[in-house]
Each structure stands twice: as structure tokens, then as C-alpha cells.
Amino acid sequence: MANELKHASQGTSLTQAEFEAVGLHVFDSQATGDIAYASSAAQLSRLAIGGTTGMILQVASGIPAWSSGGLIFISETVADDGSILLTDASNGFCYATCNGEYMLFAFFSDGSVQEIGAGSANVAYTDSDGNLCAYDTGTQVAIKNRLGDSYTCKGVVIYLP
Predict the structure, then answer these.
(1) Cα 153–Cα 159–Cα 161 angle in degrees, nearest 5
(2) Would you kindly state where each structural domain of the chain is located, as residue ranges?
(3) What is the pLDDT of residues 79-121, one digit of tens each?
(4) Cα 95 from Cα 80, distance rounded (Å)
């Protein structure tokens, strides 16, 4: 079966070193970043590294599965005119702060952004110079630093399933 734990081929007999080697047990179709999980009481299986950046691991029907729903913490140094992009095709809420400015907004799978609250006049819900911005790029929601210098932007993103 696909994705099961199996013995790597070691020839017709094994030395003690081969028996104890890390490479003796591998997953069928194994790739960097894959995760092992018990798919039954007697079987270990492989969950391939999931989807796109920003996806999180959740439980679905008792086994791990990748999902865009969940809680993500942001802490990134963002250059002036740089952005943090949120996972597209998702609905959720975000609280973001950068250089003393803060914003709270909802975002939707169509890319639209709805202001819930802002900390000062230096927050915008369009791509506007001199502001901390949250807006629809046409394909994703961007949190953009337009405050004139590089700053550490932090926040919490709650993706709704």
C-alpha cells in the first residue's frame, strides 16, 4: 500500500550495523517534511508535507490532516513597502501591530477585508503610503508596512474552517 512504513532493501542478509541503521525503515514515497502517524492500531503511515505555506495540522476523523483553519502567530521583520500575505481562499480574523500601530479586521475567501478596529490614523484598509495597511491584493490579503522604515510586525490570525 502507498504511504506505509516499510523496510529499505538491504540485500539478502543484514549486518548488525545495517539492522540498526537509521535508513532501514522508510516510508513508501517518503519526502522531506513528511510526518509519521498511526493510521490503525497496527500500522504506521505517512502524511505528506501539506499543501501550501500557512496550512496547519488538525485532526479529521481521528487522524491528522492539513487544513487552512486554525490559529497562526505572526512575528516578522517587514521592510518598508513589504508585506505579509495571508493564505488565500480562507475566512478569518486578524489582529496585527507594527511600530505602535494596530488593526483588527476580518478577511474573506473572496479576498475582501472588513475593518473591525484601528489604533490610529496611520492604519488603512487600502494600499496607502504612510500607513500600516490590510487589503485585497487581487489574489490574497496583504498586511503591508508602508510606515517608512523596516519594523517587526506581529499579530494573530484566526482562520475559520
Answers:
(1) 170
(2) 5-49, 70-160
(3) 999 999 886 667 889 999 999 999 999 998 888 899 998 777 7
(4) 19
